[in-house]
Known about the structure:
alpha/beta; 9-stranded mixed beta sheet; 5-stranded antiparallel beta sheet
Amino acid sequence: MRLTPRSVLARGALVAAVMFLAVALLTRIALMTQGRHDIAWDASLLGSFGLGLWYDLLAACYAVVPWFLLTLLLPAALWRSRAARWVVSLLLLLYAVVFIFIGVAEWFFWDEFQVRFNFIAVDYLVFTQEVIDNIQQSYPMPLIYAGLALAGAGVVWVAWRLGTVRWICAGDPAWRLRIVPVLGIAALVVGISNVFSESQLPRFSNNFNRELAKNGPYAWCAAFWESEIEFERFYLKFPIEKALVRAKELLILADTPPASDDPRDLRRVIKHEGPEKRHNIVFVSVESLSAAFMSHFKVNFKIRSYLTPNLDRLADEGILFTNLYATGTRTVRGLEALTLSVPPTPGQSIVWRPLNTNLFTSGSVCRSRGYDVSYVYGGDAMFDNMRTYFSRNNYRVIDRGTKPKSEITFQNAWGVADEDLFRWAMQEADTNHAANKPFFMHVMTVSNHRPFTFPENRIDMPQGSREAAVKYTDWCIGDFLEKAKSKPWFANTIFIVVADHCHGSAGRMELDVTKYHIPCIIWNPQLIQPRSYDRLCSQIDVVPTLFGMMNWSYTTRTFGQDVFSAGYTPDRERIYVSNYQKIAYITQGDFAMLKPKQEFTLGKVDLKAGTITPEKSAALQSRLDDTIALYQSASWLFRNGHLGADTSKP
């Protein structure tokens, strides 16, 4: 019985698959070494490698498809000539370089996010030019390219020395022997695609061990195909009427009655006595500003305390929210929370989704009062669909592409220096004031992002690290506000500084709540009395709270609450956190998380430590029902067009 493949094509594919498996194993070992302080060194690590091999095998079936397609088209005469060995060597070189490049990319991706490839990698691939520029400015790419070329050449040299190239070329090039393995691999790939999925990977007590079990390319493909997640299909659900009724009960506070008795109408009436205040609003979203960077939060105090002297001063002079949590781990999630004030429904942010036009936003509330509404961004607003989203919702968009080169003093792949951004914001404010028009300006910074470069002689730290970028952004905010004090519009302007998300996106737990703790400061010494607000609240509450401070009355479609209102009692405190597929609802120490395939996790949570203790009780079951109702209702409202700016219709 002959076990060796006879076809030249099948032999080459077998070698390519072995190469893929070898690189996958080495990558897993390398990531284990990099994450040695976070993974659990117990028996589950064997599961990481055992299950990892299974997913490596599945991914290898996909990896060899290009080999089959390339070599199938070459004529049999070529395989019988001396050129065959050079063709095989070139293909092996390409495969080796690609496989090793993926391994290196996974190393850097893990270093940044502590996970294998996921939605972030999918999203970034869409913006190829920006990502390529960012990579080139963040890492020593010439050295990496040279290393890849040498490694690939080394693989080919070994293949020659071992006789592997000769063995492949000695295979039978007959067409009938080549078509059979092609049909076989096609059937295998179709079968794998319909039977297996990454969601079948079991849970681990330590989520780092679970991430280690994944295969990077396979995880990327899974993330690509699963980017849109239909709530009713994949999550625990109620009949929609029941979900809406329960969500309505949870959203209504003593001082925010429902707009109607219709169970499908979740609008609430916000009513304040007395005249409304018409302050200008400058809303600054800071890239990746974890609460841990500020000394007020006393996290790694000795290390972090010198990074944010200006923000620390603002916190003393304004309102500091000490117990506020972001809804997600990406900028688009932060923008969704701060503009729409809705929970983070599964999959992509609404910023990315179709049908996100003319929604009820913070901008629409301001525009209805005659405000000029703008979004000022230091990068290219095409990234993450920002330009489309904001322009569809009637914001004026100012970004790098709208500015002449003369107004840019420094830029990198990700965008202009934050000081340029704030100069643009100052110009917008001056223009509106000259036109006697109140303004709502949402400013999104970019400097606290790789490659962490900025103008020289601004701070006392070298460029290239996140800590230095944090301190530079802090300097820019301080400089902007100091200059704003001399402007005639300053005395009537409220400034809000809030993070879009934290700088890390993964932890030891499935969903580490410590990675969502962000600062928020509302400031203007002439308008705001200093205080610290220590109660639990969500990123989606920031704008409703601001509008409450301005005494605005309106009908809202949001899930956010004015946390200063009398109705926001301790039993109503809650936060929403997510990481694309997993969505959680936390209140009074209770933790309820929904996952695809109708799975869930219940327990008690320690927000400071980030630990979740599994537990079952009637109270937690009730919290699970609340979680289902709120997220299902939010998803249904958006998909059925009930988050529109027109508040006169349910």
